[in-house]
TrEMBL record:
InterPro entries, sorted: AB_hydrolase_fold, BD-FAE-like_dom, GDXG_lipolytic_enzyme
Every BD-FAE-like domain range: 155-352
UniProt keywords, alphabetically: Hydrolase
Disordered: annotated span: 1-28
Listed GO MF terms: hydrolase activity
Keyword Metal-binding on entry: no
Gene3D superfamilies: alpha/beta hydrolase (3.40.50.1820)
Protein name, as recorded: Alpha/beta hydrolase
Length: 400
């Protein structure tokens, strides 16, 4: 179970080029609601857990300066700790599956979410971070839910030939705090665009006022909004190559959307690739048996689910990405630490479930206690960069 709050730590990522692959749209008021409970799916349950830029140097606190990254397009060296596993809001409900389950380094971040999740002050993205290569469009409205405007920031690469791949960035904060401007998402947005991928950092409704599935629905709305022809033309993106990057609480949302629906990854609410930093994937009572989740994490998950306990929480299984994995899901990159706030067993269970059905997955287990965006050291950034090159930028469509 995850401790779902970001940490105030400088982080940066590498650059990417631009160069095809992406849950059926949830019905709105005018359409019939299509909800299929897991009890009716008849699927087999998995046993858990058995189941042209110049790269610049980055110096992290108390660490030696990181080496220059491998030039774009060249293979990223594997490292010993990089393990690849080869191939209360109820106005809308997510569709449950019918079958079984990211060099430029110029930005240093001083603000992020504290463990309390409440006392940090958001910072607004600044246009001078990569002013020669990135165009920023802040506070764009992608939707409205219960009278609340839903906003995102767009970071767009300059001078890139359309269409380009895109990533949606989903912040953490324990589901009850954080914004699109918080912490690492500001840097990620700009740095991805500097590398040639259009990036969109999104806001979503927060708990406790809004509970699952509000957060998943909001980010899915952002995905579908981006796929609308008007936005495709405006941003010059390829609607068939959109991925998700989620951190902590955002990683749960990203994994939920990534495993929702079946079939082609190129349309609707399906995505081409998922990067999940410290995700909790089993939110059920059984999930508490995976490692040793903290009391704060458990409380955050219950608040997200709109429940007072796991015994009487009908949303818990439906909201758990682990139980929605199937063979049509997109490639996953899962980063997690051995002794962090999210039990490593959560990441391992997800990787095993994906591998069992033939979905490409990379499980990157790090030593120590770093959580979510703290995991973005040199090695991890390089690995994520290669993952996105292989599975988003240069990918071919999967329709199985």
């Amino acid at each position: 179970m995850a401790e779902l709050h970001e940490h105030p730590r400088p982080i940066q990522l590498s650059d990417l080029p631009a160069a095809p692959v992406p849950r059926g749209r949830r019905p709105r008021a005018a359409r019939a609601l299509r909800r299929i409970t897991l009890a009716r799916t008849g699927r087999q349950r998995l046993a858990v857990p058995a189941r042209g830029h110049r790269a610049r140097r980055l110096a992290l606190p108390r660490q030696a300066p990181a080496p220059v990254l491998v030039p774009l397009g060249q293979p990223v060296p594997q490292t010993p700790d990089h393990i690849g596993l080869a191939s209360g809001s109820s106005e809308r409900r997510p569709v449950v599956k019918k079958s079984g389950l990211i060099g430029a380094f110029a930005v240093l971040l001083a603000a992020g979410l504290l463990l309390s999740g409440c006392s940090a002050t958001p910072t607004t993205p600044v246009a001078d971070a990569h002013s020669d290569s990135v165009a920023l469009q802040n506070d764009l409205q992608y939707g409205t839910a219960r009278g609340q405007k839903l906003l995102l920031n767009a970071c767009l690469p300059k001078g890139k030939k359309s269409p380009i791949a895109a990533m949606i960035l989903i912040h953490g904060g324990g589901f009850d705090s954080g914004t699109k401007d918080f912490g690492g998402m500001t840097a990620l947005c700009s740095e991805l665009a500097d590398g040639g991928i259009a990036a969109f950092s999104v806001d979503y409704r927060l708990a406790p006022k809004f509970a699952y599935p509000a957060q998943v629905n909001d980010v899915t709305d952002a995905l579908e909004w981006l796929r609308d022809p008007a936005q495709v033309a405006q941003f010059g993106i390829d609607p068939e190559r959109i991925g998700l990057f989620g951190s902590s609480a955002g990683a749960i949302i990203a994994a939920s959307i990534g495993t929702n629906g079946t079939g082609s990854l190129t349309s609707g609410d399906r995505v081409a690739a998922v990067v999940a930093m410290s995700p909790a994937v089993d939110l059920t009572e059984n999930g508490l048996l995976l490692g040793d989740p903290s009391k704060t994490a458990v409380a955050s998950i219950l608040q997200y689910l709109g429940c007072s306990n796991f015994t009487d929480c009908p949303n818990s299984r439906e909201a758990s990405p682990l139980y929605s994995v199937d063979k049509t899901d997109p490639p996953f990159y899962i980063a997690i630490s051995k002794k962090e706030l999210v039990p490593v067993e959560q990441g391992e269970a997800m990787a095993l479930a994906l591998k069992a059905v033939g979905v490409p997955v990379t499980l990157d287990v790090k030593p120590g206690k770093r959580h979510a965006l703290e995991l973005l050291d040199e090695t991890t950034r390089a690995s994520i960069r290669q993952f996105l090159i292989d599975n988003l930028v240069n990918s071919s469509s999967r329709t199985d």
